[in-house]
Amino acid sequence: MTQRVLVVDDDRTVSDVVCRYLEHAGYRVEHVADGLAALAAVAAAPPHLVVLDVMLPGLDGLEVCRRLRERPDGVPIVMLTARGDEADRILGLQLGADDYLSKPFSPRELVLRVRSVLRRAGGEPAGAVPEVLSDGGLTVRTGPRVARLHGRELSLTLREFDLLAHLMRHPARAFRRAELLERVWGWQFGDQSTVTVHVRRLREKVEVDPADPRRIATVWGVGYRYEPVDG
């Protein structure tokens, strides 16, 4: 089945290039130019992924992202931000974007990011053995990509799920943020605040008191580690 990508951008030059590259990569692409049209398109026929610009007329991309994250289907989102707009980028990640690119960007890199996010959304790669990671009432099943805390399913984005699974696979081991960017995001370089934002969001979902985390600990001067609750 051909995967569908919805491109939301009011810049005709950018959207034409993005759509052309995605179509050439084998995706079926739909384009809309504003936030309300994006929400209507997703409601009518949910795509496999949304490429979403922050700067949109009327309803901006951040509000569109927030509303999409209220949907139960959890459509993956790759956000496009203007270079230097760190606040928008961080807020987009806080609202649940799975990835982002800063303009100007390479269309080929965008295709690679889209491919990576869709691959993660599809579950385990062929031949991989699904895992069940459990600790202190927290259970992560990598096959169906489901995480539960004391029986309650957690609403995690793709990157949040992958980050949690990676940390739980290596309990009590400290990871630098650059290491996590490489191992979870697959980035050789990038904004390390991306990791910080995702750790903050994870803590809000798995910690009793996110301000005093017990599971995902900060290792000052290094990064983060998962502290087992059991044992």
TrEMBL record:
Example of a GO cellular component annotation carried by this entry: cytosol
GO annotation (BP), single: regulation of DNA-templated transcription
Superkingdom of source: Bacteria
InterPro entries on file: CheY-like_superfamily, OmpR/PhoB-type_DNA-bd, Sig_transdc_resp-reg_C-effctor, Sig_transdc_resp-reg_receiver, WalR-like, WH-like_DNA-bd_sf
DNA-binding region: 130-228
Domain OmpR/PhoB-type: 130-228
Domain Response regulatory: 4-118
Name of this protein: DNA-binding response regulator, OmpR family, contains REC and winged-helix (WHTH) domain
Organism: Micromonospora halophytica
